[in-house]
Amino acid sequence: MFKINEDYLKLQGSYLFSMIGKKVAAYQKENPDKSIIRLGIGDVTQPLAPVIIEALHRAVDEMGSADTFHGYAPDLGYEFLRNAIADNDYKARGCDISADEVFVSDGAKCDSGNIQEIFAKDNKIAVCDPVYPVYIDTNVMAGRTGTFNKETETWSDVIYMPCTGENDFKPELPKKQPDLIYLCFPNNPTGGTITKDELQEWVDYANKVGAVIIYDAAYEAYITESNVPHTIYECDGARTCAIELRSFSKNAGFTGLRLGAAIVPKDLKSGDVSLHSLWARRHGTKYNGAPYIVQKAGEAVYSEAGKAQLKEQVAYYMNNATTIYNGLKDAGFEVSGGINAPYIWLKTPGNLSSWEFFDLLLSKAGVVGTPGSGFGPSGEGYFRLTAFGTHENTVKAIAKIRENI
Amino acid sequence: MFKINEDYLKLQGSYLFSMIGKKVAAYQKENPDKSIIRLGIGDVTQPLAPVIIEALHRAVDEMGSADTFHGYAPDLGYEFLRNAIADNDYKARGCDISADEVFVSDGAKCDSGNIQEIFAKDNKIAVCDPVYPVYIDTNVMAGRTGTFNKETETWSDVIYMPCTGENDFKPELPKKQPDLIYLCFPNNPTGGTITKDELQEWVDYANKVGAVIIYDAAYEAYITESNVPHTIYECDGARTCAIELRSFSKNAGFTGLRLGAAIVPKDLKSGDVSLHSLWARRHGTKYNGAPYIVQKAGEAVYSEAGKAQLKEQVAYYMNNATTIYNGLKDAGFEVSGGINAPYIWLKTPGNLSSWEFFDLLLSKAGVVGTPGSGFGPSGEGYFRLTAFGTHENTVKAIAKIRENI
């Protein structure tokens, strides 16, 4: 008689964004005449840049002709894209990452969910609190997190690193020793970040205690301050302790195209075994490569025209971030983020819980955001708004919030 | 100090097709003047059908305009594609599968590798021998297969169901009781299949012993005989014991586009827990949907024009299958498969081992095939050729084999 993976049953409630989707759908059904502005889920709204559309059309045409048709992609990604990533995101910044350390994937969500597979089940993970739920949930599904305490809303075997207004949303080195440390800077959900010197401390710590940092750099393109690192490999010693996850979703609007990459340096080893070889084996066995046409679109991101067009797109969203940040600050809200990230993190007014504020914002202002408590217990009393809406909607949303809340 | 997943180290050798790739590359390096015909890996060679190219272009244009841009896809797939699959592959055949039991994915390789995750680690798997390596390797990585016996080339905790000339390449019900049964019909690698009545016996057996059948229907489009089932849901009772995996790779040439679907009926339960809910949770947590443009291409497969064009494409490959089958049979080879599948399975002549025959075929005829032993111990002494080459190359390859072997 077959049995299920009981660890799945430990998962708490529904995946955060599914829950929001359900609440919004219910509200819309009850209020069919009311319009809603979504600044909740981190999905982009601007269309793909012209240079990417052109690259897609060209690649589609290639697929229609026997001479230029592309079947199975190389498991680890096409050379042209691995080279473009290594050259532009690493070598151009003086970071020692080679093309064969780049693993092309269908997005950072999959990579951040799958990467835990190559580690032992009894490894202890450390996460920021609040945190992108996928890091924890995928470890729950793997049986790595112990038992859930409903009162504290924490897992017994997870090391939480609180990030609140008290520490300027910057995690402190954990007191208990972790094996895997998930870091995301610029951060989702808080929009905060740390300096290169501060990240160097994490790299030194990881090397000292023999931990692996899983560094999620999905929001790197939004960095505006010069002392904020664009990749963990700007830090000395990161090649022996860090895996970096990259996304094309936010810098190039690929949320619906699906493209990402994981960087696994060959120097990252456990005894004789390189994590690079394990991840290569996983890709080769469980994955069949990202679509050729999507990888060609990814290549176009790094063309001169691509860089120019995407710089504009990022600026468009960061203009929204400024609109939200300044608008809410002027109205007396306590806000952070929004400088190096497309997320604004605000303290709920009047000691409302995050979900109470969600309901208030939806019903009074018709604005959908994301409750901070959905990202972890230290997110309680906070709320995330994203800069990924249209500018028109963003301006309207802030006006509605200022009028009605 | 972090530790790795030790189960990965149990994996035997390199993934079969990587090994073949390396051997061919080495041969080409040593013999740069010799041409090679690849009838090894199951990759297609015909370009995407015009109706699919048109659908891709239209979808790309949609992504370039704010009004029609598509960001994150629904985790489980767009309704339009889930409906098309449910209607055409199931309802049209009288099978009771609804659209919300269809989970769109980026291909059957990923689904067949990931599906084991929702089951307990101590579940026992049964596989045909020979078998598509992904079924076993992904269970090895999950620690489900016990220890490897190098002499018998089998795993201690895997139930093998030999498929050889002696049983007409049809597996017999296992003597030990399995929890998960992987079946693939029409079969990769043997090209054999079973009748609907024979599949009904498997469904009855699974329901009786409480096992789940993971039914890989990737080659369904190649069926030519009327008593061969196109889906396991043609059998009574399959809704309570079977998950079906579908692919767009072979019926529509999507090997480079990446699209598949898993069917998980809501009646398939362990106690109160439906496997449907577990798989939905996995999709929602670890996956972010197939690209919109690829799902639109998938929809075009089911249009009237799509059906007509793909019928021709399948006929093209099946003409190759006939060419290989008849050509080798006339030359005195012992061949099977090729009637309801794009694979021809042949007995190596003169008691050569599968890899010996691989080397002979490569060096004497310049033809690349797949050694049967790469698919399991009962594949030793057999060899797979695929019908996915161009017709010209297929004819040439058979002529070269007949001349030189």
Write the layout of secondary structure elements.
The structure is a homodimer of 405-residue chains.
Chain A: H1 16-30, E1 37-38, H2 50-63, H3 79-90, E2 102-105, H4 108-114, E3 125-129, H5 133-141, E4 148-149, E5 154-155, E6 158-162, E7 180-184, H6 196-209, E8 212-216, E9 242-247, E10 260-263, E11 269-270, E12 273-274, H7 275-286, H8 292-301, H9 304-330, E13 335-337, E14 343-347, H10 354-365, E15 367-368, E16 370-371, E17 382-386, H11 391-404
Parallel strand pairs in A: 1-15, 3-6, 3-7, 7-8, 8-9
Antiparallel strand pairs in A: 2-10, 4-5, 9-10, 11-12, 13-14, 14-17, 16-17
Helix pairs in contact in A: 2-8, 3-8, 4-5, 9-11
Characterization of the model:
- Two copies of one chain form a homodimer.
- Chain A has two domains: 12-48 and 305-404, Aspartate Aminotransferase, domain 1 (Alpha-Beta Complex), CATH 3.90.1150.10; 53-303, Type I PLP-dependent aspartate aminotransferase-like (Major domain) (Aspartate Aminotransferase, domain 2), CATH 3.40.640.
- The first copy, chain A, contains eleven helices and 17 strands.
- Chain A has helices spanning 16-30, 50-63, 79-90, 108-114, 133-141, 196-209, 275-286, 292-301, 304-330, 354-365, 391-404, and strands at 37-38, 102-105, 125-129, 148-149, 154-155, 158-162, 180-184, 212-216, 242-247, 260-263, 269-270, 273-274, 335-337, 343-347, 367-368, 370-371, 382-386.
- In chain A, strand 11 and strand 12 (273-274) form a beta hairpin.
- In chain A, helix 3 packs parallel to helix 8.
- The N and C termini of chain A lie far apart (56 Å).
- The model of chain A has no long low-confidence stretch (mean pLDDT 96).
